[in-house]
């Protein structure tokens, strides 16, 4: 009856330093199941630490521990008992283990090495010790200024990569807990910890300079061995640890890694104390899931390019590494270069990597042939590898691609009978996998890979459908809060390596939008409360920059980044929408979010303060950007969408602005022109304002600009630009062209919410709204979302005159179901529901649309007859020949009153085509 017990979002976590909260799910075995009571027992060493008693409550998500103070390095057993309204009883057990709890319990020194700054070999810190008694449990706790890997007796401890992750090092640094019990021998043991430059002192940023945080890597670690007789052996890093160098001769995130297996381990002296330790913030336990290899790919195709390059295609663009079973070489050197794509001639293409070399090199002798190796302290964005040094006969069996990302549980699935949509959904999820690597990066391949706040902000809704992002974003938001200042506001990248840049709209608004989104998805009031001071700080920062008219109209802004509505020939990347309209729309939106967050947290004074501020901003926006007649100073798609979606216009002007938006889209042949700011909301806005068919048409476009353009070009991830690859196969030459860049994948939330109809009605999905909208081009849709309460499922088909809808609502929740083409709302509890009824709707894609030319319609006898009947003499006009090559959408811009005629002809021709086929 009870399943999926999680403790602070994780199953049986080890190394927990904060008061845990318990969540569980109830099996969906019938209708209207509600939990009536629960009991939580927490036991340690046979001693009861907390008995909640039998609590009359339906709460099953994030119930806080309220027992005795937790002790460090201690295991706790958890038992949850649950009763439901059918009188059934269920029980589930789990456990957790605390870490250091407080930094005062850390007994390792910060140590470093004496290698010269120009040396690039990674130091290895080594400690040998004896386990003199039978071991019951052994743990190693470690962190580093750099990235590190632990080995015990030559075996890697744990399965994570790039530890301790990237944080705002001056404020906080994570440590990891390793279970090394099974790795210890009965007597002599060796712990060796390799440390690479990583983000701490590696090359980062646009100037690709090293030493952003410090010019020397360092380590601190501690070991705790519990013997079976109860005695504890504990020790930490100090100057007694030795320093060696090994096979890793060079390692940089951007450039790759060089391993020389002929070098061997070499003594490099003793460890010394790290004099810069005061520049490092407090040590905190690992806060999110670690980076792991989450999927492995065999080679899909071996290619010898026109240039003679030996290239292997893994079939999927990803972030990660290649595991190599070292082949024989003539020179004893194997070089592997990485790339996302081939050029139009079929040659290996790396220009979009800019200065990043993305090259791994292995030097080895005959003794190492056949050994499986892979890099330690780098990662690459790639689909293809170019192999040098093994000849053209080297086989595909030597190479395996290992996709890496923060190991978040997958929570969302979306599929349809339209293969292009399914590939797009895969691209969206792989874009997330490739860029959620400890932080939300903008790209995994070139010399950037930074935590851009704007990219994460626009994608966080979609991201939280696809995967459980609660811990991932909480960790990153804590760094955002640490980096936010009253003087500069919220940084553009987090962790911030770009310096003191003033905050910018849509990017810095991640400080309000992401916490609020997480609250809606997970119902985590504690997380919202933790981030609330930063949310206020950001809105207060904008308020301090406002002019006398109450608006933010100064400083740098990104505008609608990479929008297509710029003047021809312009290199401006900020789009055609007034940048300060964008800035103030977000100002209002963030103020409203803070008002709503204050309401949720029961901060009554703040609710009034920010509620009043929100109303003042909206009034000022209408005074500055809206004419007395309801027109906008910028009548771009993005401007209209922001004003409508953020509900910033007066009610009497909504229809006019919606018409302006519709006209603008029609003028662009029903294509979008939006950039990073407008795209996430465009289809949502249309669907919510009675224009779902137009949203659908924009979504289904297969040419540029549109989502399927990239899909049909063979993309397996989302591109940074709508035309990253040009129609002729050339590449965008802007110098900023990632083929794995998730921002435009934000359309994913529209698929879940509108096409499938899974929507949150109360925070945490305690109440659910199921409202699918039939979407032309898909006759079958199936989607599910694993909420904190269980699986929400919405599936529908519309074909052969019948609509079928299947819905699953998890136990302990309620729902409102709104069926397609039905007006009534069905209120229900948990369970599985099936609906079936007749329809005249056809969702098959039609041969003729408003993108058909007038000439294509007239070429059909039926079309010609209908035009002559509805508009006698139209085909005899001497000017009509100019219309033959124009699309109907172009003609409607000039003659909107003719829409009924054109639509009638299109409809009749499509019906004739269906009947004939």
Automatic annotation (TrEMBL):
Tell me the ranges covered by the Bacterial alpha-L-rhamnosidase N-terminal domain, including all copies.
133-263
The record, for Pfam families, names: Bac_rhamnosid, Bac_rhamnosid6H, Bac_rhamnosid_C, Bac_rhamnosid_N, Ig_Rha78A_N
Keywords for the protein's UniProt record, in alphabetical order: Hydrolase
Which residues does the UniProt record annotate as the domain Alpha-L-rhamnosidase concanavalin-like? 305-404
Q: Cite the Alpha-L-rhamnosidase C-terminal domain residue spans from the record.
A: 757-831
* InterPro entries registered for this protein in UniProt: 6-hairpin_glycosidase_sf, 6hp_glycosidase-like_sf, Alpha_rhamnosid, Bac_rhamnosid6H, Bac_rhamnosid_C, Bac_rhamnosid_N, Ig-like_fold, Rhamnosid_concanavalin
Query: Where would I find the Alpha-L-rhamnosidase six-hairpin glycosidase domain in this sequence?
Result: 409-754
- The reply on keyword tRNA processing is no
Q: What is its EC number?
A: 3.2.1.40
**Catalytic reactions on record:** Hydrolysis of terminal non-reducing alpha-L-rhamnose residues in alpha-L-rhamnosides
Q: What is this protein called?
A: alpha-L-rhamnosidase
Q: Which organism is it from?
A: Faecalicatena orotica
């Amino acid at each position: 009856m009870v399943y999926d017990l999680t403790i602070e979002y994780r199953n049986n976590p080890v190394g927990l330093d904060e008061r845990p909260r318990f969540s569980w799910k109830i099996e969906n075995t019938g209708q209207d199941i509600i939990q009536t009571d629960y009991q939580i027992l927490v036991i340690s060493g046979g001693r009861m630490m907390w008995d909640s008693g039998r609590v009359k409550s339906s709460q099953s998500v994030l119930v806080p521990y309220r027992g005795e103070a937790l002790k460090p390095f201690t295991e706790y057993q958890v038992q949850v008992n649950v009763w439901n309204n059918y009188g059934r009883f269920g029980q589930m057990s789990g456990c957790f283990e605390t870490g250091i709890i407080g930094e005062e319990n850390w007994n390792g020194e910060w140590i470093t090495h004496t290698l010269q700054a120009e040396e690039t070999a990674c130091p290895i810190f080594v400690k040998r010790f004896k386990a003199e008694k039978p071991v019951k449990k052994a743990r190693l706790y470690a962190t580093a200024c750099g990235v590190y890997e632990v080995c015990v007796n030559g075996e890697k401890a744990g399965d994570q990569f790039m530890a301790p992750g990237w944080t705002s090092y001056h404020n906080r640094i994570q440590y990891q807990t390793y279970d090394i019990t099974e790795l210890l021998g009965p007597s002599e043991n060796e712990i060796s910890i390799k440390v690479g430059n990583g983000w701490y002192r590696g090359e980062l940023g646009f100037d690709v300079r090293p030493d952003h945080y410090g010019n020397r890597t360092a380590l601190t670690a501690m070991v705790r061995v519990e013997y079976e007789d109860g005695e504890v052996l504990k020790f930490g890093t100090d100057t007694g640890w030795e320093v060696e160098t090994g096979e890793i001769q060079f390692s940089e995130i951007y450039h790759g890694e060089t391993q020389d297996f002929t070098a061997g381990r070499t003594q490099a002296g003793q460890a010394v104390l790290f004099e810069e330790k005061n520049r490092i913030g407090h040590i905190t336990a690992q806060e999110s899931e670690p980076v792991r290899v989450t999927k492995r790919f065999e080679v899909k195709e071996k290619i010898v390019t026109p240039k003679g390059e030996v290239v292997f295609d893994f079939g999927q663009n990803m972030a990660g590494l290649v595991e190599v079973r070292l082949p024989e070489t003539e020179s004893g050197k194997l070089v592997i270069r990485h790339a996302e794509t081939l050029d139009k001639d079929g040659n290996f293409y790396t220009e979009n990597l800019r200065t990043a070399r993305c090259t791994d090199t292995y030097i080895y002798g005959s003794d190492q042939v056949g050994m499986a190796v892979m890099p330690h302290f780098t990662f690459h964005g790639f689909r293809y590898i170019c192999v040098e040094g093994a000849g053209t006969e080297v086989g595909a069996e030597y190479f395996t691609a290992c996709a890496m990302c923060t190991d978040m549980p997958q929570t969302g699935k979306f599929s349809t009978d339209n293969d292009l949509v399914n590939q797009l959904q895969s691209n969206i999820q792989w874009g997330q996998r490739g860029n959620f690597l400890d932080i939300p990066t903008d790209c995994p391949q070139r010399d950037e890979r930074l935590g851009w706040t704007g990219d994460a902000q626009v994608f966080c809704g979609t991201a939280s459908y696809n995967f459980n992002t609660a811990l991932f974003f909480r960790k990153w938001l804590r760094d955002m809060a640490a980096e936010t200042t009253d003087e500069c506001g919220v940084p553009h990248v987090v962790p911030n390596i770009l310096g003191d840049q003033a905050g910018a709209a849509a990017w810095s608004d991640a400080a309000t939008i992401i916490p609020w989104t997480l609250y809606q998805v997970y119902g985590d009031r504690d997380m919202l409360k933790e981030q609330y001071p930063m949310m206020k700080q950001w809105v207060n920062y904008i308020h301090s920059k406002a002019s006398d008219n109450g608006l933010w109209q100064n400083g740098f802004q990104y505008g609608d980044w990479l929008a297509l509505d710029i003047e021809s020939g312009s290199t401006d990347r900020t789009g055609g929408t007034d940048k300060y309209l964008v800035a103030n729309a977000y100002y209002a939106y963030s103020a409203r979010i803070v008002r709503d967050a204050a309401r949720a947290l029961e901060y009554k004074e703040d609710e009034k303060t920010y509620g009043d501020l929100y109303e003042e901003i909206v009034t000022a926006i209408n005074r500055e950007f809206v004419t007395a007649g309801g027109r906008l100073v910028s009548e771009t798609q993005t401007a209209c969408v922001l004003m409508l979606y953020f509900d910033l216009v007066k009610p009497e002007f909504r229809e006019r602005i919606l018409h302006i938006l519709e006209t603008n889209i029609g003028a662009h042949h029903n294509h979008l022109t939006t950039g990073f700011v407008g795209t996430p909301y465009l289809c949502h806005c249309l669907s919510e304002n009675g224009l779902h068919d137009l949203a659908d048409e924009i979504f289904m476009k297969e040419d540029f600009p549109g989502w399927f353009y990239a899909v049909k070009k063979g993309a397996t991830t989302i591109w940074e630009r709508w035309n990253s690859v040009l129609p002729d196969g050339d590449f965008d030459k802007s110098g900023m062209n990632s083929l794995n860049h998730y921002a435009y994948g934000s359309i994913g939330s529209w698929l879940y919410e509108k096409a499938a109809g899974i929507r949150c009605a109360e925070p945490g999905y305690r109440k659910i709204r199921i409202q699918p909208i039939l979407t032309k081009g898909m006759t079958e849709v199936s989607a599910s979302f694993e909420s904190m309460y269980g699986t929400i499922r919405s599936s529908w088909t519309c074909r052969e005159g019948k609509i079928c809808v299947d819905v699953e609502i998890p136990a302990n929740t309620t729902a409102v179901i709104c069926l397609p083409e039905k007006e009534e709302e069905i209120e229900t509890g948990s369970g599985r529901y099936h609906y079936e009824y007749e329809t005249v709707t056809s969702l098959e894609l039609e041969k003729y649309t408003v993108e058909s030319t007038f000439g294509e319609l007239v070429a059909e006898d039926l079309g010609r007859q209908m035009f002559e009947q509805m508009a006698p003499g139209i085909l005899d006009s001497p000017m009509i020949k100019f219309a033959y090559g124009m699309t109907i959408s172009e003609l409607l811009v000039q003659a909107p009153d003719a829409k009924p005629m054109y639509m009638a002809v299109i409809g009749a021709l499509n019906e004739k085509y269906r009947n004939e086929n």
